[in-house]
Specification:
The termini are far apart. This protein has a five-stranded parallel β-sheet with strand order 2-1-3-4-5, with helices on both faces. It is elongated, with a radius of gyration of 25 Å. It is 55% helix and 12% strand. It is an alpha/beta fold. The protein folds into two domains: 31 residues; 184 residues, NAD(P)-binding Rossmann-like Domain (Rossmann fold). The C terminus is likely disordered.
Length: 232
């Protein structure tokens, strides 16, 4: 007896919710990939174009220059022949010298001073004063120093540059648990810089938020600055 096989093919439409989820998932993956590429682009080393003294002036102010990024930044500016005003990260000292800074002919300011202490903790575990100090240094000091030098830059009519040191904690990832306050203050620095750049671009004042990493070049510059200060 012959066997018969009956094949029945049914065209089943793809559910709308599956298409929606696939679209949302693909969009999110694309968004994360673009942010990662943007962060990697920011990490690429760039050499300054032209003569900094001729473009911005003879003076540069660097806050937080005693170690790390600030020291390497100050050393690099010195290599370009700029006169430096080095400012400690204590907010009280920043307020005391704000009048002096405003009276100088500086046209480059590097706001590097910042604190990350108490580090990775739950918000309720740290003392309130620790959070207040972080806000004073990471937010208030950046704002006060920038506000102190902008009137002089505008009055001289030669433009200028304000470089604020940000963090990948606020730019490359959507959230950073246990570093909530630190990443929030650095997010302020990023938005502060972007808005000021648009606000003062017509006056020739460039405002940037830089995210720096410990590349080989940075480590070498930092070691050289350590030797120049400590003789080791």
């Amino acid at each position: 007896m012959a066997s018969h096989v009956l094949l029945i093919r049914q065209d089943i439409a793809t559910p709308w919710w599956f298409i929606l989820r696939a679209f949302v998932g693909a969009a999110y993956v694309g968004f994360v990939a673009l942010r990662l590429l943007a962060y990697l682009w920011l990490c690429l080393p760039r050499m300054p174009k032209g003569d900094l003294r001729r473009r911005y002036g003879e003076w540069a102010v660097v806050t937080g220059p005693t170690s790390g990024i600030g020291r390497a930044m100050a050393l690099e500016l010195a290599r370009h022949g700029l006169n430096l005003v080095l400012v400690g990260r204590d907010p009280a000292i920043l307020r005391q010298i704000s009048d002096t800074i405003a009276s100088l002919s500086e046209l480059i300011v590097v706001n590097n001073a910042g604190v990350a202490e108490p580090g990775a903790v739950y918000l309720h575990e740290a003392d309130v004063e620790a959070w207040a100090r972080m806000v004073r240094v990471n937010v208030s000091a950046v704002t006060e120093v920038t506000a102190a030098v902008l009137p002089g830059m505008v009055a001289r009519g030669r433009g200028g540059a304000v470089v604020n040191i940000g963090s990948a904690a606020s730019e490359s990832i959507p959230s950073l648990p246990l570093y909530t306050m630190y990443s929030s203050t650095k997010r302020y620095v990023a938005q502060f810089s972007r808005s000021l750049h648009v606000e003062y671009a017509s006056k020739g004042i460039h405002v940037q938020c830089q995210i720096l990493i410990k590349s080989g070049k940075y480590v070498r510059a930092n070691r050289e600055s350590n030797r120049s200060v400590y003789g080791s």
